[in-house]
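Inputs:
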Amino acid sequence: MRRFFAAALCAVLACGLTACAQGGEHSAEFYAMDTTMSVTAYGNGAKNAVQKAQTEIDRLESQLSRTRGDSVVSRLNAGSGSQTVGPEVSSLLSIAEEYSAATSGAFDITIAPLVSAWGFTTDHYQVPDQRELDELVTHVGSSHIHLGGESEVSLDNDTQIDLGGIAKGYASDCVEAILAKNGVESAKVELGGNIYVRGSKPDGNAWRVGIQDPNNSDGFVGILSLTDGFAVTSGGYQRYFEQDGKRYHHIIDPATGYPAESGLISVTVVAPGNEEETESCPGHGTMCDAFSTALFVMGEEKAVEFWRSGTYAFQMILVTEDGRVLVTDGLGDEFEQEDGGGYAYETISRSPS
Ligand code: AMP
Ligand code: MG
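Outputs:
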């Protein structure tokens, strides 16, 4: 079993001259939401913002984790009938429902019982038997969640939710709002595979985000130059176990109950930072997180079709099992390929060639 550590080439930088003059660099590294996280901010307000960001992530984990017995999500999963979850969880559940519908169910927070059956909640891994999976998939699907007014939610019997595919992205949106409120103009946030960079680096250049080579933990398939944006990666290599020579990872296909075998081994979804006026959680960080998970399940063809539909504004980098790296044309010069990994690079444009 390997635990994921965010694939970012933006190693903590010494503060640039301007940033030093304005109050310098402040950074926190910590473990939350089952992954390693770091928040680094520059300039005036940075210290306060970093502390508040960490407190906010702890707060979100205590509300959204389903392994914390006292979280809102655990209460919802354990209870029956209609329950009041509060406006925050309620809005997260509605956006999750929207993304589930948009991706034809590839993203689905009701996979919770399946994630548990494979042992990903407890780290006691096992391949469940087919009968068990057949029964569990009958409780999966957005139609088993009922959202009412006044933050009321009810789940059908035996349906449970798991926000693991969206919570870190949501947290990155919330951290963005905290950085904005504290006047921070330059920052780098890595919440596991969820990266948010605010503005540019203190020296004025774009941040450089390494997209990990799924087949080589020390290598990158490319480097993304990013200014004020989110880049979220989902990959089977981030968490898995092996049994009888076969690898089973943590991204579940809601239709089969099995770890998705779509031909993709990594998906990165990229979107701009949220507009200043509408800086909100949930925002683009949440969207990138949901879609990176969903597109991994959907596979190359459906992912490209979904991107081409243009319903949501994002760019993506797909790495396929057969050694190709597909980059949407909106990333243009921002993506630098790393030769040496043996990959073939292709650009995906809006209309099929
Ligand atoms: P990510 O790393 O964002 O791709 O999310 C993976 C996590 O999301 C897993 O550890 C599960 O908790 C959850 N998950 C797995 N499969 C799905 C799915 N198809 N839709 C929504 N969440 C999922
Ligand atoms: Mg995700």
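Remarks. The radius of gyration is 20 Å. Residues 1-21 have pLDDT under 50 and may be disordered.
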